[in-house]
Each structure stands twice: as C-alpha cells, then as structure tokens.
Amino acid sequence: MSELTIRDLLHDAADRLRQAGVDSGRRDARILLAWAMRISREQLIAADRRPSQEEAEAFRAMIDRRVAREPVAYITGRKEFWSLEFTVGPGVLIPRPDTETLIETALSLFPDRAAPIAIADLGTGSGALLVAALKEFPQARGWGFERSPEALRYARANLEAHGLGARAEILAADWTAAPAAGFDLVLSNPPYIPTAEIGTLEAEVRAYEPRAALDGGPDGLDSYRSLAAILPRLLRPGATALLELGQGQFAAVEPLFQDLQTHPPVPDLAGIPRVLVLKRPK
After folding, report:
1. Domain range spanning residue 251?
2. Residues 33, 61: one domain?
3. CATH number of the domain to which 98 belongs
4. Which residues sit opposite 193 in a β-bridge?
5. How many structural domains comprise the chain?
C-alpha cells in the first residue's frame, strides 16, 4: 500500500493543479483519484483504505497530464452527456452541457416519444447528440454524418456501446452527402468560434480539442452558411432543424436561413440563446 492517504494525495494534486492555473483543481483531483482507484467519487469520500502503490502512481501520472492542461475527459477517456457515458479522446470534441439544450428542445417539439421519426446529426463528433436523441425516441432511426476519421471511430463505438447499432448508422461523409427530404429532425452543433478567437480559448480547448470542430471561419458563420444551403432539401415538409449557437450569434445567423421558418432561440441554463429552431413549411 501507499504511505500516503487519499487526503494527502488530493491535497498535493490540488496544489500542483492550482500552480498550473487549473481553476477546477480540487474537483479534477477527486475525479482522477476515483478513476485511478476504480471507485466512484462518492465511494472516494467514504473510503477507509489507503491507495495502493500502483493506484498512487497511476494517479500521479494522470495529474502530470492534467498539469499539462490535457482535459480530464481525455485522461479518463469518458464524458457524461444527458446522463449517458461516452467514450472520448484526442480527435473528437468533448460534449458540453450547453449542447443538452438541443435534446431538451427536441423533446418539447416532439412530445410523442413513440413517433417513428428520422433523425440526422450533422457533424456528429462523438455521437452524443444522436445517441441521446435515439434513447429518448425509442422508435426513431438515426443517421450521423462525420468526415473526421478520428471522430468517426468514437461515434461508431458509442453507438454500439449504447445498443443502437440496429437503429442508426454513422456515415463517413460530410453533411452535404445527406439525402434530400429524408429527415423529420436534424440536429447539429457546428463549429462556430471565429478563427481569431481560437487562440484566446482555454489551453484545454485550443491545445487539445480538434480545431476543425471549433473553427467557424473569420466570422464564425461558415458552417451556418453551409447548413443554410442544404437544410431546405434535407428536411421533410413540416420538419425541424435544431442548431447550436455561439453566444451572441443569433442575430447574425437567423438571416442566413431565409428559406426556412425561424423561431425565437432557446436559451441554455445560463440564459444564453443557445438553439436556433428552424422549420420547413408544410
């Protein structure tokens, strides 16, 4: 067994992370020590044993990576989204709580959970949006479109891990390859950060997460322009598209979708307009 207690390890790790500029050091240390010890964070609090030498060494190695500002989700290889666990790692965007607003909005617009709707996730990344939507609509079928080979592997693995392989398919294709008039619900969290702002992001994001999933071009609107050109043909008459927005982008994005009906944006838990709601007229 290690000579150090759980409290000792957490204290030392939190101090190292604080010195490295990690604001969430104490929380991250608890997550990583629980992971190293293969127990839950709740069990960590109540644990009455010392970590083994192997566990302590594994924990220190994780802290070394976190000091270098590698995201916790990449270190553990896991991230929760919509109360579901997803495998993530280098090459795929880490799902954010803000993006759950798209699922909440879909549930409010499609109250019949048993509806056999067709769902597309454009730029599916880890597959988190598509998996969450299919879990909520058990009779739905889904298609994800992802051109990144790295992200594609994670999306397919997550689809299978959640037992959805029979109801969904992840295609190695750009979203422009999606079939015409094929979907009742389209979801997308496109890249929307202006290129010049990428360098101002937290080190965890700018140094580790895939730039292609972040960079929205000079004004952050390149992906929305692309979506505006294809969504009218992807949606069935009366169908809905839900797009994630960056902070303050609604006024600039809404006019791009003149061929679709736009609705007031849906705010996230912080009150930021987060979801653009678009409908194709019947």
Report:
1. 78-279
2. yes
3. 3.40.50.150
4. 215
5. 2
Locate 181 and state its tokens: 């008039």
How far, in Å, CA of 102 to CA of 108, rounded?
10
Residue 104 CB coordination number (10 Å): 17
Same domain, 146 and 269: yes
Reference 81, options 54, 99, 93; nearest CA is: 99
How far is the C-alpha of 218 from the C-alpha of 257, rounded, in Å?
A: 19
Among 138, 132, 105, 65, which Cα is nearest to 264's?
105
Cα–Cα distance for residue pair 89/68, rounded to 1 Å: 16
Comparing CA positions, the residue from 165, 169, 171 lying closest to residue 146 is 171
User: Tokens 């030498």 correspond to what residue?
Assistant: 53
- How many residues are given for the chain? 282
Q: Is residue 73 part of a domain?
A: no
Query: Do 130 and 63 belong to one domain?
Result: no
Residue owning tokens 């009366």: 238
Query: What's residue 2's pLDDT?
Result: 56
Q: Give SS3 for 21.
A: coil
Residue 114 resides in a domain: yes
Q: What is the pLDDT of residue 1?
A: 52
Q: For the chain of 282 residues, list the mean pLDDT of each consecutive stretch of 10.
A: 81 95 94 93 80 94 97 97 98 97 98 96 98 98 96 97 96 90 95 97 96 97 97 96 97 96 95 97 90
> Which two three-digit tokens encode residue 263?
């609705």
Place of tokens 């295609």: 171
